[in-house]
Amino acid sequence: MRIVTANEWQQWLANGRVIEQDARGPKVIACADGQLLKVFRPRRRLWLARWFSHAQRFTTHAQQLSARGLCVPQVTECVWIERHHAVSACRYVPLPGYSMEQLFQQSPDDFLALLPEFAAFIRELHQKGVYFRSLHLGNVLRLPDGHFGLIDFLDVRFRSNPLSLRLVRRNFQHLHGYLVRNKIEHFPWEALQAHYARAGSA
Question: Is 144 in a helix, a strand, or coil?
């Protein structure tokens, strides 16, 4: 991984558009060439992140998800922003489409119509041994070709077999916690679980 110079970093900031940030700085930047720059600032175990950066981990996960037949962004480069502090970044071609959260907020009827497919997609992840701890409406995209895609999958874990019932339940708990934290009301929770169960018996 190459180290980004201070001048190049400032050019990315000047020519791009920050679309997500927190108290520590930009997290996602829309670059002038249409790619996205995702910045990783680990809080713990910096020694490990210096050895194997979060950007490399993100890229590896993208490759593993793609190998399982899932749609993910195409990573084009991994770089160091501040290696001493284990700050890394990756540039990637964003997926087209819109998040399921956008659909739920803007067109609830269309979201309900897609709920069986969304539930079947969650089951597909579980059957393929994908434990996506950050599974929530904002991290699943509906693509123009009718498929679903995943973003922000740094904390995904993989199993060689379908997820156990315990992990399936925990994954749904993560999703439910996201709904509660973000105060998303009137979500068809029971219907989602029913469609998930039906997808397993199809």
Answer: coil
